[in-house]
């Protein structure tokens, strides 16, 4: 079963593809889009849930999203059309790491998709290249809440060096010339809701379509994911969403 199809099915009941509740998303967007007429770019936008949420509440704002998944973008077009946002939302089917634009953006977001760039710091560098003067970057990344066990690493198909602890993550960001102006650390409840929604939505689809050739595979994928989470990385992998502005140049001595 195609991984993009699995992801689309798994996120039907939790369209924000990250462990954040709706209230957390809304609070971050209020901080990230203070004027309400900004131009926003989402790199690795998936089904464009962040963009749709932002534009629906801000009639003067405009947005662009970039993703490689035609399945996710088809859903994004459908959702945007139903919300009446077609004239203010542009979607690009391409590799986010290769995206260029003739204009800059007031907000560039990369939430849960830094892997498309090879990690946090390359994603942050790419976002900065597309940022307008005075703009902000919204970036979401995992971090180790505690030393990962072999079971946690297996559940995530990860290595210890894939993430840092929270303090080190922030240190790396600030050393690269960025200042956090707001942040949200996902709570255990947000993580649990996200994971139950992911595995539950995929399982429900399989049970509702018993005759589909992918039904058995979907159930297996949901069970494998649930096992890796519950017996592996639950309580070990954290998630932080940072709102950043470029730091001023160092003062001359």
UniProtKB/TrEMBL annotation:
Entry superkingdom:
Bacteria
Boundaries of every Methyltransferase domain copy = 41-135
Gene3D superfamilies from the UniProt entry: Vaccinia Virus protein VP39
Q: Name one GO molecular function term.
A: methyltransferase activity
Q: Tell me, which GO biological process terms does this entry list?
A: methylation
Keywords of the record, alphabetical order, are:
Methyltransferase, Transferase
Coiled-coil stretches, from where to where?
Answer: none
Name of the molecule in the record: Class I SAM-dependent methyltransferase
Organism of provenance: Streptomyces bathyalis
């Amino acid at each position: 079963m195609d991984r993009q199809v699995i992801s689309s099915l798994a996120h039907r009941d939790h369209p924000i593809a990250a462990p954040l509740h709706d209230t957390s998303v809304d609070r971050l967007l209020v901080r990230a889009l203070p004027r309400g007429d900004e131009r926003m770019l989402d790199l690795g936008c998936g089904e464009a849930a962040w963009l749709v949420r932002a534009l629906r509440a801000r009639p003067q704002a405009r947005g662009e999203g970039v993703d490689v998944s035609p399945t996710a973008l088809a859903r994004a077009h459908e959702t945007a059309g139903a919300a009446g946002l077609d004239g203010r939302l542009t979607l690009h089917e391409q590799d986010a790491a290769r995206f260029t634009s003739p204009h800059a953006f007031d907000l560039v977001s990369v939430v849960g998709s830094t892997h498309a760039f090879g990690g946090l710091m390359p994603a942050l560098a790419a976002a900065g290249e597309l940022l307008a003067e005075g703009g902000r970057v919204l970036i979401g990344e995992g971090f180790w809440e505690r030393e990962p066990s072999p079971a946690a690493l297996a559940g995530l198909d990860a290595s210890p060096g894939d993430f840092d602890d929270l303090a080190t993550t922030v240190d790396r960001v600030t050393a690269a010339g960025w200042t956090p102006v707001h942040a949200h650390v996902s709570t255990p409840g947000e993580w649990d809701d996200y994971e139950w929604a992911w595995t539950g939505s995929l399982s429900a689809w399989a049970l509702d379509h018993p005759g589909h050739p992918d039904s058995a595979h979907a159930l297996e994928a949901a069970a494998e994911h649930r096992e890796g989470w519950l017996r592996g990385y639950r309580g070990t992998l954290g998630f932080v969403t940072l709102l950043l502005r470029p730091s001023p140049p160092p003062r001359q001595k």
